[in-house]
Amino acid sequence: MKYSNINFNNKTILITGAAGFIGSNLCFYFQNNYPKATIVAFDCFRSNDKFSNGNPKSFGHYENLLGFKGIVISGDINDKQALKNLEENYTFDYIFHQAAISDTTVLEQDIMMKTNVNAYEDLLKIAINHGANMIYASSAATYGNSEKFEVGYESPNNTYGFSKVMMDNITYKYLKEDLDIKIVGLRYFNVYGEREFHKGKTSSMVIQFAHQILRGEIPKLFEKSDEILRDFIYIEDVIQANIKACTPKKSGVYNVGTSKPRSFEDIVNILQDLLEVPKKKEYIKNPYMGSYQFFTQANIETTKKYLEYEPRYSLEEGIKEYLPQIKESLKLK
Question: Is 160 a catalytic residue?
């Protein structure tokens, strides 16, 4: 489905983090809807390198791009020469910056800041030089334990959330200038959907619970999961927001969610209903106390106003559409 009247055919589009979850979905959105577009997929693909928490340094995986026919470049956004090559070899019309260290449990603050903050400003300078609209991934982690989930009420409780606040601050700095481009930061809430399989432990609870149930296990939830409410948003609505951000009525930072928080308990119940299995559950202690968001609810009024964004999928509808892909992903394990 097309989410904009823009004709992206014959446009040159850079997607960073293109072998990751959201980036790969963007690649296929353009490929499927605009076959004459030049799509440059830039990613630091998976290697054996791991952070101190044991998780991979990159979630980018070639399997997320199987069937992609555009240009694939393996590179690190921290590599100044790699960015210079992009700037000199192409003239971009749009840049979708999805590359980041998105693992909230990463302890290496230095690499988190270099990757999420400094590299963003380098890419933004390319966008300005090329006259390319910049759409980038911010995060609901900027809010932390804030009582309000709207711009101006940031209270990050981990390095990742802090890094995204710093990205947004860079945006505000540049928006004070008289630029010829639009800059839009999208604060994603809890995204789930196709092509997230390779995120491993950081993948959505939708796929994690589904895999447990499909393996015949009793799903494990944190204690008081019925009180942990999150704004879960299906990948198709995230793609919608990115496309509509190409022609915003106003540059800025916007929430991307449904504004309707649901519990982990709801996810398990929906999955068990769809899979027609008994509603059994096991409860475990939450090991992330102190750095864990127990409630998120996106205020999307400005997103609706300036991006004309309207979420299309309820949690029930999103999980139902996603379930066939979840079953396929289990075969890969």
Answer: yes
